[in-house]
Amino acid sequence: MRLATVRTALGATNAVRIDEGRMLDTGYPDVGSLLSDKGWRVVAQSATAEVEALAVKPFAPLVTRPSKIVCVGLNYRNHILEMGRDLPEYPTLFSKFAESLVGAEDDISMPAETDEFDWECELAIVIGSPVRRATEAEAEDAIAGFTVLNDITCRDWQFRTREWLQGKSWESTTPIGPLLVTPDELSGGVRPDLAISTSIDDELMQSNRTGDLLFDPVDLVRYISILTTLHPGDIIATGTPGGVGHARQPARYLSAGEIVVTEIDGIGTCRNLVVADPGR
Known about the structure:
The structure is a single chain. Strand 17 and strand 18 form a beta hairpin. Helix 4 packs across helix 7 (217-227). The chain starts with a strand and ends with a strand. Strands 1, 2, 3, 4, 5, 6, 7, 10, 11, 13 and 16 form an eleven-stranded mixed β-sheet that branches. Strands 8-18-17-14-15 form a five-stranded mixed β-sheet, with no helix packed on it. The model has no long low-confidence stretch (mean pLDDT 96). The longest helix is centred in the C-terminal third of the chain and has 11 residues, at 217-227. Helix content is 16%, strand content 34%. The chain folds into two domains: 1-60, no CATH class; 63-276, Alpha-Beta Complex (Fumarylacetoacetate hydrolase, domain 2), CATH 3.90.850. It is an alpha+beta fold. The chain is globular and about 55 Å long.
């Protein structure tokens, strides 16, 4: 099953099931609220009314107001090595704010306060049922599906301190979407093995497979759910492969006017224009 949150021409949003190109309205305003219905699979499969009057950029953030966005750093071997770190014993966790999210075709707002604006294509888990201290089976069941997330980072702010939040949570910087794809449609299921890539103005920057994650999606749901209850619509960004701009020699960062394309085969593509935020 493929789900999305779309914008209508009247300014509303609708959670839809996509079936052979048709956008079928589930009756919920976004995928997060749909997933809060215990019967979301039946509701989505039963949708028949087509949403026709879409906005010019139809894809809103997949989940508009998740209660949590938990991110994992240093989770691909080649990215860990390019950043000069040791392989971690436990997942490296940080968070993002909901205000950071934008849709799969929306502009990325580059803050005036940064000179080191970087890309990070990631497989993102979307939670479909409440789970706390999950067993492996419970963690598998709690995964509604996967989407694409670009963890855009202000590196100069990230490395001001040992904590990463201030480099990761800038407003309107994090594309997510366009689709939630359920595990039954993906090679590897809840542990998908899919090609993942980033291109900047058609130049390939990142290329790997999601099967190379050190801590796979089930591991991450189990680990994070020890700390806190994961709720429907919560997002876990699983980490990025090697090829980020900060680790290049010389370093390479994003500039206004560039187009960033992040893609995971079988799930979808975010295509976003970088625009300068003039600040105050």
